[in-house]
Design a protein that fits this description.
- The complex is a heterodimer of chains A (108) and B (121).
- In chain A, strands 2, 4, 5, 9, 10 and 11 form a 6-stranded mixed sheet that branches. In chain A, strands 1-3-8-7-6 form a 5-stranded antiparallel sheet, with no helix packed on it.
- Chain A is an all-beta fold and 108 residues long.
- The mean pLDDT of chain A is 92.
- The termini of chain A are far apart.
- By secondary structure, chain B is mainly β.
- Classes of the chains: A mainly beta (108), B mainly beta (121).
- At the A-B interface, strand 5, strand 9 and strand 10 of A face strand 5 and strand 10 of B.
């Protein structure tokens, strides 16, 4: 079983809609959770990090963590075509484990 | 300091040759990481340094791979006797100093370089 699981997609949403990206992890000892965005041919860039149960909001992005269900999600409100990218979920336990990423396409 | 820099950006080599990549982290960062990423996959952890000490090494890492960070600043990743399966993007990342040595507890936000794309013919 992989440490981090993501639906590879592709996920398509119309411009202005909410995009919902999901991630599950296998080890309950995982403490820190990250979402990275990666454009094609580029390196990952940090979008959000979350350590505590609940929601964390930053602009159009909201990260949600549920440690009991071992579930992390990322919501993107008012999706823009520039949000089209692959979104990587990562956890620390104790090394960094990345999921395979979910490809998001925002249709104008 | 504009961020993590990696050199070269692209490397084409023949099977059996040795290659070496360099990573210069953000200057205040004491942690440095190497990852490998193939198409359609997330970055795969290879190894991690805190200052000059190599603290973690993936059990999946072949003994043909070696990494150094001799003065706690830049790092090199060497691949000996390259194979076609080594073709990938090699990413370096660095992070701010965290509290204590337990990676799980540190607020360990990593910043990535642009990567070195290796093609083994």
């Amino acid at each position: 079983q992989k440490e981090v699981e993501q639906n590879s997609g592709p996920l398509s949403v119309p411009e202005g809609a909410i995009a919902s990206l999901n991630c599950t992890y296998s080890d309950r000892g995982s403490q820190s959770f990250f979402w990275y965005r990666q454009y094609s041919g580029k390196s990952p860039e940090l979008i959000m990090f979350i350590y505590s149960n609940g929601d964390k909001e930053d602009g159009r992005f909201t990260a949600q963590l549920n440690k009991a269900s071992q579930y992390v999600s990322l919501l993107i409100r008012d999706s823009q075509p520039s949000d089209s990218a692959t979104y990587l979920c990562a956890v620390i336990n104790p090394q960094f484990y990345f999921g395979t990423g979910t490809s998001l396409t925002v249709i104008p | 300091d504009t961020g993590v820099s990696q050199d070269p950006r692209h490397k084409i080599t023949k099977r059996g040759q040795n290659v070496t990549f360099r990573c210069d982290p953000i200057s205040e960062h004491n942690r440095l990481y190497w990852y490998r990423q193939t198409l359609g996959q997330g970055p795969e952890f290879l190894t991690y340094f805190q200052n000059e000490a190599q603290l973690e090494k993936s059990r999946l890492l072949s003994d043909r791979f070696s990494a150094e960070r001799p003065k706690g600043s830049f790092s090199t990743l060497e691949i000996q006797r390259t194979e076609q399966g080594d073709s990938a993007m090699y990413l370096c990342a660095s992070s701010f100093p965290g509290a204590g040595g337990d990676l799980r507890l540190a607020k360990n936000i990593q910043y990535f370089g642009a990567g070195t794309r290796l093609s083994v013919l």
